[in-house]
Write a structure and sequence with these properties.
Layout (H helix, E strand, L loop, with lengths): L2 H12 L34 E5 L15 E3 L5 E3 L8 E10 L2 E10 L5 E9 L9 H5 L9 E3 L8 E5 L4 E7 L1 E4 L4 E2 L5 E7 L10 E3 L6 E8 L6 E7 L6 E8 L2 E2 L3 E5 L2 E10 L2 E8 L2 E13 L16 E3 L8 E6 L9 E5 L13 E2 L11 E3 L8 E11 L2 E10 L3 E9 L17 E3 L17 E6 L2 E5 L17 E4 L14 E3 L8 E4 L2 E4 L5 E2 L5 E4 L8 E3 L3 E11 L5 E10 L6 E9 L3 E4 L3 E4 L4 E10 L14 E9 L4 E5 L3 E4 L5 E9 L5 E7 L6 E4 L3 E5 L4 E10 L7 E10 L6 E10 L5 E4 L4 E4 L4 E10 L5 E7 L6 E4 L2 E2 L2 E4 L4 E9 L9 E10 L6 E10 L2 E3 L3 E4 L4 E9 L6 E9 L6 E4 L2 E4 L4 E9 L9 E9 L4 E10 L5 E5 L5 E4 L4 E10 L5 E7 ...
Parallel strand pairs: 3-10, 39-46, 48-55, 57-65, 67-74, 76-83, 85-91, 93-101, 103-110, 112-118
Antiparallel strand pairs: 1-36, 2-4, 4-5, 5-6, 7-8, 8-9, 9-12, 10-11, 13-14, 14-15, 15-16, 17-19, 18-19, 19-20, 20-21, 22-23, 23-24, 24-25, 26-27, 27-28, 28-29, 30-31, 31-32, 32-33, 34-35, 35-36, 37-40, 38-40, 40-43, 40-44, 41-42, 41-45, 45-46, 47-49, 49-53, 50-52, 50-54, 51-53, 54-55, 56-58, ...
Length: 1832
């Protein structure tokens, strides 16, 4: 994978999931919006604290750039795995080096403040090399804010820096990370490219935009060398550093550029100070826009005048009005000293925006250097303008003004701050730093319709920074003591370290909390942040070696386990737990710690003995009480680390495929892998569970000698036999370690057996006799002999009304389980007019629905006779009886005696015929029963056809009956001891032992139950359990102890009938019957009674309950003894368990109140004496006398305010007077509610005059207060006898005040709008207005599905009465709206239910439409294509994750330059959760100068700010570059006839070479050649070629790939030459020397010309350009057949091609003619010279010279441009032509075609825009080259 692919993968793998949006340039974006993205949490109105500060004077790292940027450089980081979820902070500082100030670009880790990377920017100079150090240290100038983007499109993050001297550097940092201490190499390594602009840039900032398909840079500055000064706006290609365009205008100051994206165009806006005037320019592609050519053009104060800071605020691009598109906000400094700054707002065409007419004066605001920001600060759905100005009326009075303006325009709010500081000099406190907007305070709950919080303002003026609530410009909560949310003062900022650096805001440390990046420092909320990282959990052995794998039983040490507090506040009393496997697992260790802010703490060392084989997770948990330790986030408080525990003996069992489907008798094989995870070699026992013997199973008993960490496999085969049912069958394979039998692993396999079909139909009796008009039945047995359930159709002849019946119902089909039989009956009725001898055949055909070829038929034969059987086929079980009812009649005309007898076929069993002889009158019918008793030894399946004869000797008839011994199917329940009757007492248990027998040959699951209706209330148990179910193998049995317990109140002699029911699927239930009779028991009880109060001298009837506790009838004798009664004895009868009330009269007479007495009562059972049992009970009743008694009860219930009266009986018990006076009194908690009625005032007391000994009725009035607490109150009445004060009687009432229920429910705070995933709240007040405590149950109805709700208290609320301050409670209802909730309005009802009242509230909530889309690639995002070949398709999918329908729009950019037509769709409406696929069609450019990229942007039309991008990369094929090197001859100077070895090396670069052909030329003639195969990329192959040296000087030339099979992009290294001289021994060498010199000269000239041609055609790129060819007669591409293997091959153009199947190289011409080329070119090989001296056989040197001279001659045609050749020969055709010329020795002036068909490549990038045709140059004219030697 190339570097781009590596980095793209790195982006996806390493990009932290929690990293927030970046701040990549001044003002955050090219519009200079200055709006921070919303973070998960924010700072609120609590003063933040510094997380780190690198920009203070004390750190010598003062910030020297106008702004700070924040980016993600994760893709650039190498070294250890980068797991830090942070962003990276970049700005420019400076340092003193040799007394000179040098700029330094620095990068910091946003979380741990560690340096990551830096770059020396050199001396601070202008474009002319003049030092700007004084300007920078006085803060009149600063470095432009760096810009961050992937400028070169390689997936890595780059930094663009515009230096003061106008040099633009693009750096691609290379950063190495060390995870142990979370440090970086902090080096300056980088890739870089630059652009030199020759302007000075000290008061503006660059922006990043897309001008050329990628990320490009636009910046502005001043040209100090022009007269007058000129401003420059320059656009630079981000990927190359080349200038794209330049705009120049008069001016001495220029603002930072702002970019308006207008469709695919980019418009650049700057403001300019030019000779006292303020102008605005709009630029597109370097040209000024006609509507923006020096717009406004009004006077302003010279920025460099006096104390005014020379800074023009930037233009801002924003959508402020209802006008279409975005507006241009232009901030203008004041026109003169003492005047005020202004704002202008235009549309993109330069017209005043709606609501604006000219400028808006910031009245009283003074000067402006800071760039305004635009955002929705009051959550009204509209953007507002926030501008910061300053005024400086004196050296000690500096004021900062902050304006919030609506778009109309009008002031929303305005505030000022006195920023003068006596410690600073004049001008040091000017507001130069630009403000930003962010959600700082969201606890006010202010949101727009989409649920977005309002933005707040953050602004800085040396040395202070202020956070202002966006809604009111203050503190957000009407706190008069605060005029801001908060303010902070940056340390060590002052005259020598002013805050001119504009802040940024995002989550730089990845904790989800907003961070403010200010002048080299980071401020965040004052919260703790406990963090755990996996690398901080160290697990070691006893020697402190870190381990990931240990032995079972080994001691493991845990130290250190490091807990981090990455927050800004101390965390106290934090409970740390270490648990095993899960967060709730076994507790290994716990500790409570305190940990300071931004520190770490190690837990104490502890150990654990490793237990349990396999992988374990060691969880470290920080258990934080959020009330005591509020954190930034809580999702990073837990972390786990895995530890593998390896036992001495252990195993893992695995199987790839657990499922098989087979036919019966077919094998299902499963292969298992058993891995020894233990440390010792082990054997493993294999066990296969087999519940069904109808399977043949083969498996090994043991897998032996499995070594540690190795795997062996074994196979288990299953073969279902013929009677295995068609269904899924499960088998458990268990593997057990021999070394440790507790180590067991198992797998379950599934085998589905296919169904086959079969049928058997039998009719036990096929013929019967019957009377006319008689119904006859034929039993037919239909057996499903298939292995699965099947349905069978029944077809029958309908003669004699025949039909098929099943279970007493007519049926035409029947479903039967596998191997089961169903009884079908053929029922027919003989005709009424039938005569003896008449008969009818009825055929029944049964056909399988599963396989209609499976069918059988049976036929019945019914005839009319004088004898018939009511049921001709009867079955009997062994040990049971069978009976046949035979009917017959006298067919004669006279009375006679007829006999019936068995003729044949009867079994040798006991039998009888009753009666067997009849006296029948004519046509009279008779009936006889034939009985058979089957012995226990009767064999199931035996079949007896019994013939019966009826007759009188003259007339007779014979019929056949069938007796069958039935199979016992299914199960039976037998008594083990033949016990079926038992007796027990009530509540006691009886026992029955039964045997459960499975008569089937397969295992059955049997359930036992009982008939509850027979014994209601009785308890039955099976082996002490209430239910019983067990699987019993075929042919086996088991015993069950059945117990039956009667209720305690079961009456005597009652019998409980026990029916135990045995059930099995597919079988009829079976029964076991027994009974239990209940014995009679005896007992009695007397109800207890407390002391009875009697009204004195009154006979009262006393009642008392007596119960017969026995379960049967009894007679009780009752005896009474006492002073106040007459002694007596009664006898009363009782039923079992009956209770009766007895009564007797008691009269005390005239005794004093309070006098007591008693009565003795004795009860005896008389029936128990019959059983020799004595049952007797007694009791003593106590009585006390009173003179005051209530007529009714003593409990009274009243509502508040209700009145009533009660009556009392009053009696005087003195015996001295006939009358007496009773004094009354009332006491108790309700004494004031009551009063005796009609009393007589006597001696100041309320009295009654009563008759002695005679009770009289008086009344008491009672009235409850209207306001009273519900509850019980006491009322005590008292009377005292006036004549005897010791006679005192009292009567106490309980008064109950009934509760009145009244609750109210009102909302005190509601939420009307929310977003999906939010949890809106409602505050409710619930009040109890009733007169007593109440309990309220809270509920809620009407919420959509999957919404949830909670109340902040329990659902049950207890409230005191209305008289208490605790009668009301505020509760909070929280509704959790799901993340996927759809948008719309929803109603729900809040319900409060008390004991006696109910209240409901109907609430409404609107769920905002949330737009969210995701896009992801389908398949690879990087592909390789064939230049000029088929297009490549990139696929991706788009999903609407929002909660409403959305329209998705596709945009695109990049070097691939796709168009809308290259997508499947570019605009599509997606419903909620809908996913749609799309593709990008990418033709592969012929230039093959990739890689090419396409950046596809998928945006929501519902919310255009929602978008995502996918970058696709297309690469062209890499073509091989073959070459020749190390050409040598051995020997170098051979003698004629000597064998010479020519050696050279063939090399391959850039790609593999499967084969290439080389050709050897000697003196220009082909001598030989061969194909070289299999050279890998970067490799080579040595070649040795032999030839025989000829006398003289000769040139050896080796050429590669002359047929252009490889499309070699670089042919300059495809030719090598060597010259040798072969001299005959003893001859004169002079002539030879001269010839050699001449040949060397000529050869050098030829080689020089060839090499110059090759160099001119060589390419610096690795991709071959397309050759210029004439227009073919056919349209390419073509699909041709390979001449070697016949495969279909797609050929893109004429020339050579390679078959992808057989690798044969062929060529095709423009007419489509094809021929194989995978062999040496057809040449006439030069013959090797013989030893003969015949000169005629030797080639003539002169002929070769003449051809060479002609080749170099100027007599050839004039220069010909390659691009206009009428016809161009292929390389092989030119080679062939040259060879043919070689054969004609007589031709002295041959011409040689150039072997190259490559057009010249461009030699430098400046020529890339204009391609020119290059001409081939001939040698100088004159017929020769160089000096003439040897005949030239």
């Amino acid at each position: 994978m190339n570097r781009l692919a590596v980095f793209i993968v790195a982006i996806f793998l390493l990009l932290p999931s929690g990293v927030n949006a970046e701040w990549t340039m001044f003002g955050k974006d090219a519009n200079h919006s200055g709006v921070a993205d919303t973070t998960v949490r924010t700072i609120q109105d609590r003063e933040p604290v510094v997380s780190w500060d690198k920009g203070s004077s004390s750190s010598d790292e003062e910030v020297y750039s106008w702004g700070t940027v924040v980016g993600n450089f994760t893709p650039n980081i190498s070294g250890d795995t980068y797991d830090r979820n942070v962003l990276h902070v970049v700005y420019i500082t400076a340092e003193e080096v040799d007394d000179e100030l040098r700029g330094k670009l620095v990068m910091w880790d946003g979380g741990n403040q560690k340096p990551m990377w830096e770059k020396d920017l050199g001396l601070i100079e202008d474009q002319n090399g003049q030092s700007l150090e004084n300007d920078f240290t006085s803060f009149d100038s600063a470095y432009a804010t760096p810009a961050i983007a992937d400028f070169d499109g390689d997936g890595l993050t780059d930094i663009a820096v515009v230096k003061p001297n106008g040099e633009v550097y693009f750096y691609e940092p290379e950063i190495q990370y060390f995870s142990d201490n979370e440090n970086y190499d902090a080096d300056s390594n980088s890739q870089s490219w630059f652009y030199e602009s020759d302007i000075t840039v000290v008061r503006s900032n660059p922006v990043v935009t897309s001008l050329n398909g990628g990320n490009d840079l636009v910046f502005s500055g001043i040209d100090l060398d022009s007269e007058p000064d000129e401003i420059n706006v320059i656009a630079v290609d981000g990927s190359t550093g080349n200038r794209l365009w330049q705009f120049i205008a008069d001016g001495s100051e220029v603002s930072s550029p702002a970019i308006l994206k207008d469709s695919s165009n980019r418009k650049v806006f700057v403001s300019v100070y030019d000779s006292g005037n303020f102008k605005v320019y709009g630029i597109q592609n370097g040209d000024v826009l006609s509507d923006w050519n020096g717009k406004i053009n009004t006077a302003i104060l010279d920025p460099q005048t006096g104390a005014h800071h020379p800074m023009l605020p930037s233009i801002v691009i924003a959508n402020l009005t209802t006008d279409p598109g975005k507006e241009i906000l232009v901030p203008q400094p004041p026109s003169a000293s003492g005047e005020d700054a202004q704002l202008w707002l235009f549309d993109s065409d330069g017209n005043d925006a709606t609501g604006w007419s000219g400028s808006y004066d910031l009245d009283g605001g003074g000067d402006m250097d800071a760039t305004p920001v635009v955002g929705d600060i009051d959550a009204d759905g509209k953007a507002e303008i926030v501008a910061v100005t300053w005024s400086d009326s004196s050296t000690t009075s500096e004021i900062t003004h902050v304006w919030a303006l609506s778009a109309d325009p009008s002031v929303d709010w305005y505030t000022t701050y006195d920023t003068s500081n006596p410690g600073l000099g004049d001008n040091d406190e000017h507001a130069i730093s630009s403000p930003i907007l962010a959600v700082i305070y969201d606890e006010d709950g202010i949101k727009d319709a989409e649920g977005n919080h309002n933005l707040d303002v953050f602004t800085c003026t040396t040395p202070d920074c202020y956070a202002l609530d966006g809604n009111d410009g203050g503190n957000g909560d009407d706190d008069d003591e605060k005029d801001s949310l908060w303010d902070i003062s940056l340390d060590n900022r002052g005259a020598d370290n002013r805050i001119y650096n504009s802040p940024a805001a995002t989550d730089v440390d990845g904790d989800g909390l907003l961070d403010l990046v200010i002048d080299g420092s980071v401020y965040s909320a004052n919260l703790a942040d406990l963090t755990l990282k996996r690398k901080d959990i160290k697990i070691t052995d006893s020697e402190e070696n870190e381990v990931t794998e240990v032995e079972e039983g080994q001691l493991v040490l845990f130290y250190p386990i490091t807990i981090r507090n990455e927050g800004n506040f101390q965390a106290e009393d934090v409970d740390i737990e270490v648990r095993l496997d899960t967060k709730d697992g076994e507790l290994l260790y716990s500790e409570t710690i305190d940990i300071d802010a931004n520190t770490v703490k190690n837990l104490n060392e502890f150990n654990w003995t490793a237990q349990g084989q396999g992988s374990h997770n060691i969880w470290v948990l920080c258990l934080v009480d959020s009330d005591n330790n509020e954190e930034v986030r809580y999702d990073n408080n837990n972390m786990s680390k895995s530890l593998l525990v390896r036992p001495q003996y252990g195993l893992e069992l695995a199987i790839d495929d657990k499922f098989e489907t087979v036919d019966v008798n077919q094998t299902a094989s499963f292969t298992f892998n058993v891995t020894n995870v233990g440390l010792q070699t082990d054997n493993y026992t294999i066990d296969v569970s087999v519940l069904n013997p109808k399977w043949a199973i083969t498996s090994p008993a043991v897998v032996s000698a499995v070594e540690s960490n190795t795997t062996k496999n074994f196979t288990v085969d299953f073969v279902p036999k013929i009677n295995v049912t068609a269904r899924e069958h499960l088998f458990t394979i268990t593997v057990t370690s021999d070394g440790n039998a507790s180590r067991i692993e198992s797998e379950i396999v599934s085998i589905t057996v296919n169904q086959y079909f079969g049928l058997n139909v039998s009719m036990p009796l096929t013929y019967q006799r019957a009377f006319p008009s008689t119904e006859i039945t034929y039993p037919v047995r239909v057996t499903n002999e298939g292995n699965g359930i099947d349905t069978f159709d029944l077809f029958i002849d309908f003669d004699w009304g025949a039909n098929t019946w099943i279970d007493d119902s007519v049926s035409s089909s029947v479903s039967i389980g596998s191997f089961r039989t169903v009884d079908v009956e053929i029922r027919l009725t003989t005709p009424s007019d039938g005569s003896p001898g008449d008969y009818q055949l009825i055929e029944l055909t049964v056909i399988s629905q599963g396989d209609n070829s499976v069918a059988e038929s049976v036929t019945s034969n019914t005839s009319i006779g004088i004898m018939m059987a009511e049921k001709a086929v009867v079955g009997v079980l062994p040990g049971e009886n069978a009976s046949f009812s035979i009917i017959f009649k006298n067919p004669t005309n006279a009375t006679d005696i007829f006999d019936i007898s068995i003729d044949s076929g009867s079994p040798d069993w006991p039998s009888s015929i009753t009666p067997n002889s009849f006296n029948l009158s004519s046509e009279e019918q008779g009936q006889s029963l034939i009985n058979f008793t089957a012995p226990n030894t009767a064999k199931p399946g035996d079949f007896f056809e019994i013939e019966l004869t009826f007759g009188n000797g003259e007339v007779s008839d014979t019929i056949t009956i069938v007796l069958e011994v039935n199979d016992i199917q299914g199960i039976r329940l037998w008594s083990i001891d033949d016990t079926f009757v038992s007796y027990s007492d009530p509540g006691e248990t009886a026992y029955f032992n039964i045997r459960v027998v499975n008569y089937e040959d397969q295992a059955l699951t049997i359930d036992l139950s009982h008939e509850e209706a027979y014994i209601p209330g009785w308890t039955v148990a099976y082996n002490t359990y209430s239910t019983w179910s067990k699987t019993i193998p075929g042919g086996s049995s088991t015993t069950v102890n059945v117990t039956i317990t009667s209720p305690d109140n079961t009456e005597a002699i009652e019998t409980g009938w026990l029916r135990v029911i045995g059930t099995v699927d597919g079988f009829e239930p079976v029964f076991f019957d027994a009974n239990v009779t209940i014995n009679q028991t005896f007992g009695l009880s007397i109800a207890s009674k407390s002391t009875i109060t009697l009204l004195g001298n009154v006979s009262e009837l006393v009642r008392l309950s007596i119960t017969n506790t026995g379960n049967g009838p009894d007679v009780f004798e009752i005896r009474y003894l006492g002073d106040w009664i007459d002694d007596d004895t009664d006898t009363i009868s009782f039923d079992g368990f009956e209770t009766k009330e007895i009564s007797f009269v008691v009269n005390s007479g005239l005794v004093a109140p309070g006098t007591g007495s008693s009565v003795f009562l004795e009860v005896n059972s008389t029936k128990s004496l019959d059983t020799d049992m004595i049952i007797s009970e007694n009791t003593t009743l106590s009585f006390v006398v009173t003179g005051l008694q209530s007529v009714g009860g003593t409990s009274i219930s009243l509502n508040p305010g209700e009145s009533t009266s009660v009556e009392v009986l009053m009696v005087s018990l003195i015996d001295s007077n006939p009358t007496s006076r009773m004094i009354t009194d009332i006491s108790g908690t309700s004494q004031y509610w009551a009063d005796f009625n009609n009393t007589e005032e006597f001696e100041g007391q309320k009295t009654y005059v009563v008759t002695v000994g005679q009770p009289q009725v008086f009344s008491v009035d009672l009235s409850a207060p209207s306001i009273v607490v519900a509850g019980d109150y006491t009322l005590t009445l008292e009377i005292v006898d006036y004549y005897n004060s010791s006679h005192i009687s009292t009567l106490t009432y309980t008064i109950t005040i009934l509760q009145q229920y009244d609750i109210s429910l009102v909302p005190t705070s509601t939420t009307s709008v929310t977003n999906p995933g939010f949890s809106p709240e409602w505050v409710l007040r619930i009040t109890n207005n009733g007169n007593g405590p109440d309990t309220v149950n809270m509920a809620l109805s009407g919420l959509p599905d999957f919404w949830e709700y909670t109340y902040n208290s329990d659902d049950v609320i207890n409230l005191e009465s209305t008289f208490s301050s605790s009668n009301t409670k505020a509760i909070v209802l929280t509704v959790s709206v799901p993340d996927n909730a759809t948008s719309g309005d929803f109603n729900f009802t809040i319900i409060a239910n008390s004991v006696g009242d109910s209240e409901q509230l109907v609430m409404n909530i609107t769920v905002n439409a949330v737009y969210k889309i995701t896009a992801s690639p389908i398949g690879d995002i990087e592909l390789i294509g064939n230049p000029g070949g088929d297009p490549v398709y990139f696929q991706f999918k788009v999903t609407n994750l929002g909660n409403t329908e959305d329209n998705v729009v596709i945009d695109y950019a990049g070097s691939l330059s796709p168009s809308a037509g290259d997508f499947e769709w570019v605009n599509k409406t997606l419903s909620i959760s809908q996913e749609s696929t799309n593709y990008l069609r990418a033709p592969v450019p012929l230039t093959n100068d990739g890689p090419w990229t396409a950046v596809v942007t998928i945006s929501s039309l519902g919310n255009p700010s929602i978008s995502t991008t996918i970058t696709f990369t297309l690469n062209g094929f890499s073509l091989p570059d073959v070459g020749i090197s190390q050409l040598t001859l051995m020997p170098p100077n051979p003698t004629p006839g000597e064998k010479v070895k020519l050696s050279f090396t063939v090399t391959a670069e850039d790609a593999d070479v499967s084969s290439v052909y080389y050709t050897v030329y000697i003196d220009g003639e082909v001598y030989g050649g061969e194909r070289v195969t299999g050279i890998s990329k970067g490799g080579s192959k040595p070649i040795i070629f032999d030839f025989i040296a000829e006398e003289g000087s000769h040139t050896i030339t080796v050429r590669l790939d002359e047929s252009d099979e490889l499309s070699d992009p670089n042919t300059s290294n495809n030719v090598a030459q060597q010259t040798y001289v072969a001299e005959a021994s003893g001859s004169s060498n002079l002539a030879i020397y001269l010839i050699v010199i001449a040949l060397v000269s000529v050869s050098a000239a030829v080689y020089y010309r060839y090499s110059r041609k090759e160099k001119s055609t060589s390419s610096k790129k690795s991709i071959r350009r397309a050759p210029v060819v004439s227009e073919p007669s056919l349209s390419f591409p073509l699909v041709l057949n390979c001449v070697q293997c016949g495969s279909r091959v797609r050929v893109a153009r004429p020339g050579s091609f390679r078959c992808p199947s057989c690798k044969e190289v062929s060529s095709v011409d423009s007419n489509g003619e094809i021929k194989s080329s995978d062999k040496p070119p057809e040449t006439k090989v030069r013959r090797r010279p013989s030893t003969s001296s015949d000169e005629s056989e030797r080639p003539k040197l002169g002929s070769r010279r003449s051809r060479m001279e002609a080749f170099l001659s100027s007599d050839k045609s004039e220069d010909i441009e390659e691009e206009v050749e009428e016809k161009k020969l292929s390389a092989s055709e030119r080679l062939r032509q040259l060879r043919e010329e070689t054969e004609f020795e007589s031709s002295e002036a041959g011409t040689e075609e150039s072997l190259d068909d490559e057009p010249d490549e461009l030699e430098n990038k400046e020529d890339a825009k204009e391609k020119k045709s290059k001409k081939r140059k001939d040698p100088p004219k004159g017929g020769s080259f160089g000096p003439t030697v040897g005949g030239f």
